[in-house]
Amino acid sequence: MESAAAVEVARHIVQVLGCLLAIGLFSSVLAQKVKIPDVAVYLVVGMLVGPRLAGWVDIPSDSAINQGILILGASYILFDGGASLRLKVLSEVWITITVISTIGVLITGIITAGAAYYILHVPFIVALLLGAAIASTDPATLVPVFRQVPIKDRVAQTVMSESAFNDAMGAIVTFAVLGVAMGSGEFSLSHALFDLLKQSFIGILTGGVVGYGTAWSIAHKRYAFLADYAPVVTLMAVIASYMIADGLQASGFMAVFVFGIVLGNKDAFGLAMVAEEEKKLEHYVLTTALIMRMFIFILLGAQVDFGLMNQYLGGGILVVVVFMLVARPVTVFLCAGPDRRARWSRNELLFMCWTRETGVIPGALAGMLVGMKAPGAPIIASVTFLAILMTILIQATTTAWLGGKLGLLVTKE
Q1: What is the domain count for the chain?
Q2: What is the pLDDT of residues 208-232, one digit of tens each?
């Protein structure tokens, strides 16, 4: 009987994955026709086929398969984003990335918390928890958008790097505030800073070591003994980067992003692949990242709780408006504006103000708070869902238009 039940579960999983691929393919074609980033279409279609409407896709957010898809998918998309960055560009903007990924998260969280406190009339500690949960940007959304919208290199790479590095800061602040809210601890600035530095150092070190080892095994002139298996090695290394860093209580997402940077810049370390093999690997990575993108955002849309959102709809929308139009611009101008090394133009700063999509990482944090029965968790989950929907559907779909208006679009070679 147990064997029959297991087979039935396996069939259901295969059926759902096949359904996700079919829906994703249809959505990709639709996105191409209407000329908007595919993540926005995946999200809307996911809402339509989810259990609350059509009922074609029903995977609970707390299920093992959902968590597995989110972790692997977000990790692979982050790796893809890291591999597209260039060290020369990052060397010009590292100050902005560092400040906006740390202090910027605090600024965004505090301003959003103030809005939630006055608009939703919740206890200030709950407002702080909400602000912290949605303060980090989402790499799983931003990386695909910049893959499709050709924005000036240093702007796109700064925004993508910020989204990769600030998830650790967002998680640390969220759980620090949660400890105070649940009476299980007191906030310690020194402890929080040490934890951030530790997570960052271990994540960067892990990604760097795995990245160099992978590049050496597939691109070394004499010792590339795994060159024929480059796609498999790459996938294995993405998983290894995340699992090693996570096992060391560091940011797995930071590790896979740094791994991508190292592998994508392997030429700088004297490890260059044959052009034909390089193209094969790039094609594999792009295809795999597309599949991961389909899975993540269709599932995210399917899990939107309309009933929960409706409970706090009016106030939640106002909070998200402040979040998008006040908190983000203040954060960008305070953190990036003073960077004399980068010398950001007004148009570049304005563009960065508009690109701060919320998605998988904040959604996962909100889900964890609900599971832990944190104070105000239903309100936090409701506003997080609204932030995800509004930022992806409004900001992601207008990225190309705004880039054109501000003169930041570049011609693809």
Answers
A1: 2
A2: 999 999 999 988 877 778 888 888 9
